[in-house]
Amino acid sequence: xxxxxxxRLAMLFAVAVISMAAAEAQxxxxxxxxxxxxSYIIGTHHVAPxxxxxxxxxxxxxxxxxxxxxxxxxxxxxxxxxxxxxxxYAMAPADSTLGKVLTADEMKMVDAATxxxxxxxxxxxxxxxPAALSAQIAVMQAAATFKGFDPSQQxxxxxxxxxxxxGMKVGGLETAEYQLKVLFGSPISCQxxxxxxxxxxxxxxxxxxxxxxxxxxxxxxxxxxxMIGNSEMGMSQYELDTLLYGRNEAWTEKLVSxxxxxxxxxxxxxxxxxxxEKGVLxxxxxxxxxxxxxx
Length: 295
What we know:
- The protein is of the alpha/beta class and 295 residues long.
- It has one domain (6-13, 24-238, 265-293).
- It is built from 13 helices and 6 strands.
- It has helices at residues 6-22, 59-64, 79-89, 98-101, 104-118, 130-145, 155-165, 176-184, 188-200, 202-217, 221-228, 237-259, 280-286, and strands at residues 28-32, 39-44, 68-71, 169-172, 265-270, 290-293.
- The protein has a 6-stranded mixed sheet with strand order 4-3-5-2-1-6, with helices on both faces.
- It is globular, with a radius of gyration of 19 Å.
- Mean pLDDT is 86; it is low at 1-24.
């Protein structure tokens, strides 16, 4: 990512706020068509407080109307799988640990960050791939933008728990292994560069994270799409293709072919996967479904 000045970032946020006034704020949508039962899809922010569900119009009725729930992964059944697969995908090869791919000065930056966010020295994270450490830091930064965030009440996990308590079938759109591979499968050298950029531009990243949190709280998918695709602070084209577009296509194919025809389904995925021509909402429409905002 290129550097962006605080002024330019502030201007970008101003544009996003203006767009919010004109755009339809919505993260819960109804899916109808093909002679099957109505289903619903909600976009989440993975560190937003669960209390935000109280402010989503129509949520309780939509959730109660469904007999099964599908998230990105089945979080409960994937717990043991994640623990095993993390050794394969989140841990660095012996010749590519942090201390071997970063300079001494860069390791000092990493140490300052791990002390700040985890109260631990960088040596405790040496065996992680840079992307795995970046992800942990990003979660801490994002959590700081939501007042009252409780990791035990994270939206995705809470909804799966509530679904199982109601006797709903719970499934995943992808496996934990595939998710780990996507998140941590890029070249180590690229991961290292991204980690250092993240630490050097910490103020900008924190502001960008705060802006995304504000946009999510306003339920504005158009503004979120603009932020995610921003060439300077958003995702790279590789990240868009790998983390968003490719997964959107795979999820939609699975939804259309096997999940939606089965039963009324409550779908829970990150909000960034919903908007745009390559977003899940558009892909479902292209497949012949009617997708409308829930009021």
